[in-house]
Amino acid sequence: MQSLESLTREAQSLAGVSEHSITWHSKGLSANESEVARQMQICNACRYCEGFCAVFPAMARRLQFDSKADLNYLANLCHNCGACLHACQYAPPHEFAVNVPQAMAKVRLETYTDFAWPAAMGTLYKNNGLTVALATAFGLALFLVLTLLFTGKLIHEPLAGNFYAVFPHNTLALMFGAVFGFAVLALGIGVTRFWKEITPGAASVAALGEATHNVLGMKYLDGGHGQGCNDEDDRFTLRRRYFHHLTFYGFMLCFAATSVATLYHYVLGLQAPYAYTSLPVILGTVGGIGLLIGPAGLLWLNLRRSPLHGDAAQKPMDRAFILLLFTVSLTGLALLIWRDTSYMALWLAIHLGFVMALFFTLPYGKFAHGIYRTAALLKWSIEKRQPNKLAVGGE
Amino acid sequence: MWDVIVVGGGNAALCSALMAREAGASVLILEASPKVWRGGNSQHTRNLRCMHDAPQDVLVDAYTEEEYWQDLLKVTGGQTNEALARMVIRESSSCRDWMRKHGVHFQPPLSGTLHVARTNAFFMGGGKALVNAYFASAEKLGIDILYDSPVDDLEIKDGKFIAAKVGDKRYAGNACVLGCGGFESDRAWLREAWGQNELGEWPADNFLIRGTRYNMGVVLKVMMRAGADTMGDPTQAHCVAIDARSPLYDGGICTRIDAVSLGIVVNREAKRFYDEGEDFWPKRYALWGRLVALQPGQIAYSIIDVKSVGRFMPAVFENIKADTLPELAGKLGLDPEVFMQTINDFNAACQPGTFDHTIQDDCHTQGLTPEKTHWALPIEKGPFFGYPVRPGVTFTYFGLTTDEKASVFFDGKASPNLFAAGEINAGNVLGKGYTAGVGMSIGTAFGRIAGTQAALAAQKIKEGSSHAIA
Asked: Which residues of A are less than 8 Å from B255 in CB distance?
């Protein structure tokens, strides 16, 4: 965290803002936060759901829900699995109208928006379908134009998969390095500020280990009993967890492929194209297949999801991100298949266009959920190891 | 035509439907409520009181048949049937694997439930999750389910079930299980049962229904008209003191006020009326609904000071808060002079001791009527808090007489094919009082037995046997 913090300070001073310029404590609760607070007061008097996930045990360590930090922490702990909604005796049409996954989802969007850096960019979360569409159009146009500028044509003699005949390696490294670096910086600043607001205290090795396990294993999509979460109704399935794993690990393998290729290039001096049996291509292919099946499955589940789950206004953001991942993978695999043909440059431009759109929107779209949730899960692993000041008894 | 018609859609009804189906019967469930409200009071439950002789999966230590029976004997004051009660207790030790098979998940003991992990197995997500699991299992097994189908009449001939009726629809079956609850949702019936008190009040008019709005007791009345044998006192019920601001129906668990044993409770006249510290709250909460019902206006006020904050389960509604006691009296609409007299008398009677709300401590009053026997600390440190409480009825105990086969009786003779399970026959075991999770033990035991017996009865009838199965 240390280096990230100093980075944050530097970036803030560059942006001309003083530290803690978005301090929550001076702001009142938003309507969505008040709704979470209202529901948490009901849940805290019931507690039947305490076995499902971390939200309810974390809630039970509190008596009052009047702090923005607490409410946003709880909201980001929620995985929108749906278990508590289907089990809730106070869910609509009950007059208490408790729908925790939905209330939490609405607050999460506010978290992302409040902590966006630069602050003005937070608004991109709110019309995220449009944001992703424009970014994709821009990315595609950029690389198609660049292809024409560099080579004068889109269709060419076969180049034996040599991408750098179209775009010089350093040009690509500079472009993507800059955009990706910005995404890391923007999300890093956002989550660092969030972390400060929710004041978790120091993380022990055990807490770090548990949080890592919970993040990488998607622990809280298991329903607490291992049979999974809810999709269209009250039945539990592991589909969402598995499709998410395929997506996440597919993404990480593709990322690893790029990282290994970078090492090959700069350290070993090995130039692309790499053989089909080389490590970067194998990693990219396996990851790419995961990144096809995973997002396709998540989209299918998203379309079938109970309308009571989550925030309907965020569906465009969810689906835009899922589709962007899918198209990145699809075009990447197409590029691999046709890299020895006259269409390589065209596929390369299309693929890079989608990748650029993904990188552009990384800090202002659905990707942020993983960052803030990881922070919330780490806080939970720290918090649960602290002594509980309350002894309220129980049943 | 079905082998077994099950009237109701809560735990007992679903257990009987599943058991009957497993025994090979075709089964129809007639649930009075729409799908969103299905499950009767089971959607508000949380756990099952289980006998076990040694540690078992989610249960620690042992809870023997004898200890369970003694607990039941104590809370019912002997108003129970030992043979039926012991059968329910024994059944509670062996039903969990069957429940798991039908999708019910039990949760490992957690911090909030640790001290009851010896006696009670908790459903993960509570009773509505259990109801969801049973309905899903029922659908998978091919049980027919009709919602919005409140049975309003039964065709019974010489004690034998012929058909159930919903309006002008008629559902014929070879056997029937009545698992459709008590009559607590029928406020007119409660009014009649409780009558008028010496102040000329109709106490039941001030009751809240903590449970479902669909237990109108219609089938119970049909059975009474048909001459079925009934048992129990219609004023006896699972009745707890709940927040007076709760909704009229379906307030469920979160409306409870757990501050009672930490402070004092006064009635409308600002006077105490019962030992608030008699025992741990989970062992006493079922007494307080009735205690409040017997007070003028059927209302009381739980009063604590700041020392108790964080020592009881949080309440669903905001507390009524004041910096001084007279101000609190004003906010609660109590006579400040009488209220201060009550407080001062109580504070003066508190004996020195070592307060510990996790054990039965030695903080008690002396020379007070009524005494407070544990957790008596002077109420003196502001801010002060009050919670208004009213009687909240979860379910009534008056119902049908049944035997160990869950058979319904007509003039002392068992029906060959009509059975009852759940709240409609719980009064056989539970004449008064309550202890956590015993309602589900009774419903599960009798539900499973009724389902098996109904499938058997239907089989016999189909085979043309004229032998009664009682």
From this structure: 45
Q: Using CA of residue A49, residue A52, residue A54, residue A57, what is the dihedral sign?
A: positive
What DSSP letter does each residue of A195-258 carry, written as one string? HHHT---PPPHHHHHHHHHHHHTTGGGSTTTTS-EESSSS-EESHHHHHHHHHHHHHHHHHHHH
Pairwise CB contact (< 8 Å): A60 & B111: yes
Check A87 against B132: CB less than 8 A apart: yes
pLDDT digits (tens, 9 = 90+) for B434-463: 999 999 999 999 999 999 999 999 999 998
Render pLDDT for A318-365 as a digit per residue (tens, 0 to 9). 999 999 999 999 999 999 999 999 999 999 999 999 999 999 999 999
**Are residues B457 and B356 part of one domain?**
no
In this structure, is residue A351 part of a structural domain? yes
Shortest Cα distance, chain B CAs vs residue A169, angstroms: 55
Residue A9: pLDDT band (50, 70, 90) is very low
Structural domain for B141, as ranges: 2-182+217-231+397-462
Q: Are residues B449 and B327 in the same domain?
A: no
Q: Report ipTM (2 d.p.).
A: 0.95
Q: What pLDDT is recorded for position A1? A: 41
Which of B346, B361, B392 delimits the end of a domain? B392
B185 to chain A, minimum CA–CA distance in Å?
A: 16
Least confident of A371-385, B14-28, B111-125: B111-125
Exposed, middle or buried by CB within 10 Å (0-12, 13-18, 19+), for B146?
Answer: middle
Rounded to whole angstroms, the Cα distance separating B344 from A7 reads 62
Q: What is the DSSP letter of B168?
A: T
Q: Work out how many domains chain A is built from and give that number.
A: 1
pLDDT-derived band at B284, boundaries 50, 70, 90: confident
Does residue A110 fall inside a structural domain? no
Contact B127 A89 (CB under 8 A): yes
Report how many domains make up chain B.
2
- Give CA B180 to chain center in angstroms: 14
Domain of residue A348, residue span: 121-202+222-368
pLDDT tens digits for A247-305? Answer: 999 999 999 999 999 999 999 999 888 999 999 999 999 999 999 999 999 999 999 99
What pTM, to 2 d.p., does this model score? Answer: 0.93
Helix, strand or coil for residue B78?
coil
**CATH code of A264's domain:** 1.20.950
Cβ contact (<8 Å) for A394 and B116?
Answer: yes
Where does the pLDDT of residue B141 fall: very low under 50, low under 70, confident under 90, or very high at 90 and above? very high
Chain B 251-310, CB below 8 Å of chain A: which residues? 252-256, 258, 281-282, 309-310
Mean pLDDT confidence for B154-174: 98
CATH number, domain with residue B136: 3.50.50.60
* B368 lies in the same domain as B406: no
Detail the DSSP E strand segments found in B317-411. Answer: 320-322, 384-396, 399-400, 407-410
Residue A379 has which token pair? 């806080």
Cβ pairs bridging A and B (under 8 Å): 128
- The answer, for B126 touching chain A at a CB cutoff of 8 Å, is yes
Beta-strand ranges (E) seen in B296-443 are 300-305, 320-322, 384-396, 399-400, 407-410, 413-420
Indicate the helix (H) or strand (E) that contains B161: strand B160-166
Same domain, B271 and B142: no
Distance between CA A213 and CA A198 in Å, rounded?
21
- Residues within 8 A of A (CB atoms), B 36-95 only: 36-37, 43-44, 46-47
Do B227 and B119 fall into the same domain?
A: yes
Which tokens hold the place of A160?
A: 């034996």
B379 and B354 part of one domain: yes
